[in-house]
Design a protein that fits this description.
This protein is mainly α. The protein is 76% helix and 1% strand. The radius of gyration is 21 Å and the shape is globular.
């Protein structure tokens, strides 16, 4: 890897790019569940992310390394079954999210062409994962610069949508009387929590960052604060511009559909392009972080050398992650497991909050904030599982399967190495 460092805006773009890609598939889902309460649902989910951001900021400054979440859990809980299972579950969740982004990229992509044959969608998905893999083989500096350009373009389109759409808002569409029940709003917030997934990838840039102690907290808080405001405003404009019935009729591409009366047909095409750029940059940011902490998992499991057969461990992790994602994105239906992807991240974030609470003296943190984060994440996880059981019970088995596989891999590892199995 190059020794070149990246600055505030490169990491800020990486963080925003890793998050905003989830907006496009999530917007229609949250409106379907929470009705006119969608803006509040986005705010609630963002608040959970913001509280967890405190733990990540403190831990990232105390442990500035590419391992990110993996390192935090290992430092707090040691190399045992608990941390090992969580690390693998996190990696599984990233593969799910990568596949989710790439399928959205393929769906939006074929909408620009007259032919909608499945082969074109698979081709777009494959080209996207191969392209982002190639980009991640370059230096961190190249990655940061590409993210700045991509994020700037898509944010420009989204901000233009907000500015132009503000004059098209019909207040009757978002009257308090039409807001759905609080239960539905919270359920919507938990289901689309994955639309905030990606901020934790900022931790993986610490070694490549100029002055991480000063820059990292500023990046974390500004990224989450900006995204919460962006999501709430977009949800308000979307609900105010069109009746909910029309939005739900096109919920898979809600923003592109609502952009037509606001920005015209050309604006709708621009919004589709923004969706393509968002999902692509989110995939790039997610792949950047997940490939690097996969090498940390390998090192913690006995692969101590920096190279294996002449290849950097980060590159090996990149190829493995990309290969599995390529298969899942092309051959598996991930609409159902996207909800369990949110559940996986809520479980991981609860553990990260607990890690910071346990090491609060070392990280110079207020313990009660992270303990609050633990409780909120676990309550949110319980609400999400309850909602899944009510609407589609089979999705719960996906989370059970992911956890079981992670535990099974850890147990097999310890048995194969003749090591004592401990929690």
């Amino acid at each position: 890897m190059s020794s070149k460092k990246i600055g505030f805006w490169s990491v800020w773009a990486l963080g925003v790019g890793g998050i905003v890609g989830g907006l496009f598939p999530a917007l229609g889902v949250v409106i379907q569940i929470a009705d006119a309460g969608a803006p509040l649902a986005f705010a609630i989910a963002g608040t959970i992310a913001l509280i967890t951001t405190y733990a990540y900021a403190k831990l990232s400054v105390a442990h500035p390394c590419r391992g990110g979440t993996v390192t935090f859990l290992n430092q707090a809980f040691g190399l045992g079954l608990f941390s090992g299972t969580l690390n693998l579950l996190l990696w599984f969740s990233y593969v799910v999210m990568l596949s989710f982004y790439l399928q959205a990229f393929g769906s939006y992509g074929i909408s620009l062409f007259t032919s909608t044959q499945p082969i074109w969608k698979h081709l777009l998905i494959s080209l996207a994962i191969l392209g982002t893999t190639g980009l991640n083989l370059l230096t961190a500096n190249h990655i940061g610069k590409s993210q700045i350009w991509i994020v700037s373009f898509k944010l420009g389109i989204l901000i233009l949508f907000i500015l132009m759409g503000s004059s098209h808002i019909d207040i009757s569409h978002i009257q308090p009387a039409s807001v759905s029940s609080l239960q539905s709003i919270f359920a919507g917030a938990m289901v689309i929590f994955l639309s905030y997934e990606g901020f934790e990838l900022i931790a993986n840039t610490a070694e490549d960052l100029v002055n991480p102690k000063y820059t990292l907290p500023r990046v974390y808080y500004s990224v989450i604060g900006f995204v919460i405001l962006l999501y709430v405003l977009i949800a308000l404009v979307t609900l105010g511009a069109e009746p909910i019935e029309q939005i739900l009729a096109a919920k898979d591409y809600a923003l592109a559909e609502v952009a037509k009366p606001i920005m015209g047909q050309f604006g709708s095409v621009l919004m589709t392009i923004a969706a393509l750029l968002s999902t692509l940059s989110a995939s790039n940011a997610t792949l950047y972080g997940s490939a690097r902490f996969s090498s940390v998992i390998a090192k913690s499991r006995g692969f101590d050398g920096s190279e294996i057969n002449g290849r950097d461990q980060s590159s090996i992790g990149l190829f493995i992650t990309s290969g599995i994602t390529l298969i899942i994105a092309n051959f598996f239906d991930i609409s159902r497991i996207s909800t369990m992807g949110s559940a996986g991240f809520l479980l991981i974030f609860a553990a990260v909050n607990l890690a910071n609470a346990r090491m609060h003296r070392y990280t110079k943190s207020k313990q009660w904030i992270s303990l609050l984060g633990v409780g909120i994440c676990l309550v949110a996880l319980g609400m999400l599982i309850w909602f899944a059981l009510q609407t589609d019970p089979q999705t719960v088995w996906v989370l059970v399967f992911m956890v079981a596989v992670a535990i099974g891999i850890e147990v097999i590892y310890y048995l194969s190495k003749n090591r004592q199995l401990h929690l």
